[in-house]
């Protein structure tokens, strides 16, 4: 494996190896093992054309815990504003010795394009509405960690599927790992192609909740929305928001996930977001060891 562009490229064995490696690396960063020397002398570039809180800092921390040098590049304040293309920007960073480029870009397919231009590894940190593979991997890791298995798990992914790279990456990965995924959304927030995806589709959250082991809530991505698709906040929350009453109708050991950033009061109430059954902060913590595992396997491992 040279790049990580799509979870659809991962076999069951490869995906399991990443999760197992992340579990082994989970102790790195605590008091006893601050850092590993594995990627000493290697350079990781974080090339971010879209905003990020979790993914960029998580990749930076993961690379540093493996002793890599890290360059954080944000399109804002760079020569991109003078018209420099993605290709020329990437080749410039490669000329400085980048061994891996972690890219987030607003255009679906940007990571695949980049993989044709640079010699090093490309890690897709979110490309448009297409994919976000490390988010899906850290989600799968968190499910397995909390519930002890992925095989046969019933996972509901709820919300703005149309604009969600997280949903697509999760459907592809979770089905590879033996879970059953149901997408729940209003018809206007589902892609036309959804019936070709390897999952079920429902418009009725209240029907799906009692049958789910995991409910993954997604943010409505207003910034990618055309006016006609935008539901009113009140109507959306009433039909697709997860509040304490709905949480009570889920199986008692079922968990609530969210990739972040959350919009409290819209897709998730504060009561649910702060509940011990909500894994949002665990997902963030697991994301560091998961990204360490991916960097290790692409750059330093066998
Ligand atoms: N989940 C996620 O990708 O969050 P950021 O946009 O903050 O990176």
TrEMBL record:
Species annotation: Nocardiopsis eucommiae
Binding site for carbamoyl phosphate: 54-55, 104, 132, 135, 260-261
Cross-referenced PROSITE patterns: CARBAMOYLTRANSFERASE
A single GO BP: amino acid metabolic process
UniProt: L-aspartate binding residues: 82, 165, 219
Pathway: Pyrimidine metabolism; UMP biosynthesis via de novo pathway; (S)-dihydroorotate from bicarbonate: step 2/3
Domain Aspartate/ornithine carbamoyltransferase carbamoyl-P binding: 2-144
Protein name as it appears in the record: Aspartate carbamoyltransferase
GO terms of molecular function: amino acid binding; aspartate carbamoyltransferase activity
Oligomeric form and interacting partners: Heterododecamer (2C3:3R2) of six catalytic PyrB chains organized as two trimers (C3), and six regulatory PyrI chains organized as three dimers (R2).
Residue span(s) of domain Aspartate/ornithine carbamoyltransferase Asp/Orn-binding: 151-298
């Amino acid at each position: 494996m040279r790049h990580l562009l799509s979870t659809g490229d991962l076999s069951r064995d490869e995906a399991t190896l990443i999760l197992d490696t992340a579990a082994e690396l989970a102790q790195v960063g605590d008091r006893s093992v601050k850092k590993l020397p594995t990627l000493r002398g290697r350079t990781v570039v974080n090339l971010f054309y879209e905003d990020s809180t979790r993914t960029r800092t998580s990749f930076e921390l993961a690379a540093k815990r493996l002793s890599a040098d890290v360059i954080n590049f944000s399109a804002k304040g760079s020569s991109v504003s003078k018209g420099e293309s993605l290709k020329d920007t990437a080749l410039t960073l490669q000329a400085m010795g980048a061994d891996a480029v972690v890219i987030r870009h607003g255009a679906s397919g940007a990571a695949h394009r980049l993989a044709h231009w640079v010699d090093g590894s490309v890690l897709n940190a979110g490309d448009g509405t297409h994919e976000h593979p490390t988010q899906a991997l850290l989600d799968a890791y968190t499910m397995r960690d909390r519930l002890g298995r992925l095989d046969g798990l019933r996972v509901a992914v709820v919300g703005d599927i149309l604009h969600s790279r997280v949903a697509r990456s999760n459907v592809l990965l979770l089905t590879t790992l033996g879970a059953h995924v149901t997408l729940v959304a209003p018809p206007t927030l589902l892609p036309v192609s959804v019936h070709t995806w390897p999952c079920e589709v429902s418009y009725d959250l209240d029907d799906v909740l009692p049958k789910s082991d995991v409910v993954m809530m997604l943010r409505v991505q207003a910034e990618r929305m055309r006016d006609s698709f935008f539901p009113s906040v009140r109507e959306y929350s009433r039909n697709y928001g997860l509040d304490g009453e709905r949480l009570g109708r889920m199986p008692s050991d079922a968990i609530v996930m969210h990739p972040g950033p959350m919009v409290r009061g819209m897709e998730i109430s504060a009561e649910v977001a702060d509940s011990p059954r909500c894994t949002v902060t665990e997902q963030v913590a697991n994301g560091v060891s998961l990204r360490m595992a991916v960097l290790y396997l692409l750059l330093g491992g066998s």
